[in-house]
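As noted in the main text, all predictions were made from sequence alone. Below is one such record, for Nucleoside triphosphate pyrophosphohydrolase.
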Amino acid sequence: MAQDKAAMAHPALEATAGADQTGIPRLLAIMAALRDPKTGCPWDIEQDFATIAPYTIEEAHEVADAIARSAWDELPGELGDLLLQVVFHAQMADEAGMFDFADVVENISTKMIDRHPHIFGDESRDKSAEQQIKDWEAIKARERAAKSEQGVLDGVALGLPALTRALKLQNRAARVGFDWPGPADVLKKIVEESHELVEARDSSDHAHLTEEFGDLLFVMANLARHLDIDPEEALRMANAKFTGRFRSIEAALAATGRRPEDSDLAEMDALWDEAKAAERA
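Prediction:
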């Protein structure tokens, strides 16, 4: 108990004394104390929007990871880490006189009300999920127009993971008719791009090779869209499959007192096939 009282007496926490000691007010006060130019944390003080942005993306992925693993006991902590990122950005903006956390909350609250006229307005709630998606997109289009985003592809965030951004760009273009008729046409394009990649491989131009590889990935994302597959989810599943099978290789080698580096490709390939067969058994 004495230690708790000493901790509360720390100068950095005295800045929170006038704030509600629970919930969001407490977190905002803690963040302000961490950024205090005189008594705050040197690391936190040195950060800016650009340096914090990668952490924001990382924390969002960790939330998704906890959900994918059904790690519900970890999810509150991961969501807290993500919330901290929002508070961090809001605090830096407040210091710069740009906006504050209340503005962030007001913005998203207004947006949710505006985008759900069938709940908060006079539109009928009796509509399908498909119609709701169309209405949602129409509302977002009006929002983009209000922000002078005239181009079809305007507003697709540059900071998105490349695969996710590829899908969004393709969906936007498809809405105005710029799309292949079906998966068969996309598959033909994949064959074409594969041949171009092979040709680029045989050249000494690494930049061109990178370009052709990117083209192939972009078309693969388009195939996923036409097949109604989430490519991120498909790749996550492939990653999990690879991880499981490789760990089976490690376990088999460990049973003989060895590690992968003590083996060779032929043996590990055979163990891989055994792990693959075990999955199907």
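The longest helix spans residues 231-254. The mean pLDDT is 88. These features were considered when defining construct boundaries for the mutagenesis experiments described in Section 2.9.
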